[in-house]
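Quarterly update from the structural biology core.
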Amino acid sequence: MPTLPSIYLIHASDVPQHLGKLTEILQTLKAEQRVTSFVILRPDDPLTRVQDNDLVLIMLTQAIEPDKAALENELKLMRENLWELKIAEIIVDQIPYDNEFITFPSDLKYIRGRDDMDAVWKDIEESLKDMFPVIARDHWKKYLKYVVLALVIIVMALLVWWFTRLGEVKATFTANPMECGEPCEVHFDNKSENAGTYLWDFGDGTTEENESPTHIFEAAGDYLVRLIASSDNRRDTVALTIRINPPPPIANFSYTNVGCMAPCTVVFNNTSKNADTFEWYFGDGEESNERNPSHLYQEPGDYTVSLVAKRGELDSVKTYTLKIIEKSQEPAAFTVSGVVLNVSSNNYSGNCPYTIDFKATITVNGAGTVKYVCLRKDGTTTPVETIQFSEAGSKTIDTPPWTYGGTGNVYKDLWQELRIIDPLEKRSNRAYFNLICKIPCVVVARANTKVYEDPENIHTKSEIINLGVRGTLGDGGTFEVIEKKTRASAPFFKIKDQKTGLEGWVHNVFNDLASVDNGCFEN
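Predicted structure, tokenized:
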């Protein structure tokens, strides 16, 4: 039978789910003997194996964009000699396509972001099958010599390629995850070849020289992470984009003048997080886009008030039902009409265990006593506490603080909520936060270590300060580093005895210290 063509897939994909879907389609084409093989290449791999009537298939993603122009020019030159060569591009991201090539999908819309990606991949599969129909198996012996010749050419090309690349430094790595919410811990797996030293630039102003580091991205954004792999006078560079998404908006609000008689003006207090635009629906047909609006209710009744907090394409909705009463009605029974819990920050960083503070705003419709507890993600419940109201209104209180951390480094999506248990059960929003624990620095003192009162006068004053429970620091021991200074290009460390609380300065230029964790201080 005629020689079956091959498909060469070129990608630098940061969307593994799309690469996996396309690989399944190519495996199907090969299993149905529509093509003889498919080969997955990187943008900088040589295209010497490509033959006439083959297909070069390019996945257009943000990661391939730096190599796109050079790759397309190389393919156009190849097609001048290989007239039957097919070239197609699959638009995964919003990257301009070349009108000289076949383009998938046919509607020229990018795949990422579609609601029904299975349908578009099905259309691409059918188009590829139309391009490579099943060939009848009769007379296959007639074409066997061409198959053998093609295999010999491919093997020779591979040998040439292998010998030319032998010993070259090739930088490459993978990241897990490639997209996550802030703050995010990303592990980088170094797969470079023929290299001995590595320099990482994480795109956030920090660098590192470990082989396969783990890095925490604190803020949202797209970070271009670069790896420079080196060996002697040879080096290679590769880059990958890591996307850190901002936290989603969280809608929440409280309101004053609860249970008032019509006509009645209600003031709304917007306590939403991570949002920049707001839509209010007051339940009587009226709307507002103010951050903290007030609204006049003319008639008595129950009104469902909704707040939609938005940032970009993300939104969050919070709804409360408030009652406006008639003048002739008796005052309503004492009840809690609103409860909002706020955390002082969404992201904390420091030495652990770390104490987190919360504030709660409780709104009631009259005089009475409110009992409440706090519920936490780790399953604990605080003791019952009370707050007294002499009249209708709102009060902001400090809830019991929460001390957390100490056994790990990164804690994500922790939360606490306030639960009203009397007069009627009612729960607040969940106040979410993240915690990153810092590991304290320590030093190990040698015997006869000198401890100075002040590094500024280190060369004129040598008084030894007694530290440690056994007499002086000269007896040896481990101490926490609490400060660092540099004098005459030499480091001095202020240390603290954890048992006695005494402090002093040591100088490691004269081998005062057996070890110093300098990584905890910037030079």
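The CA atoms of residues 69 and 98 lie 10 Å apart.
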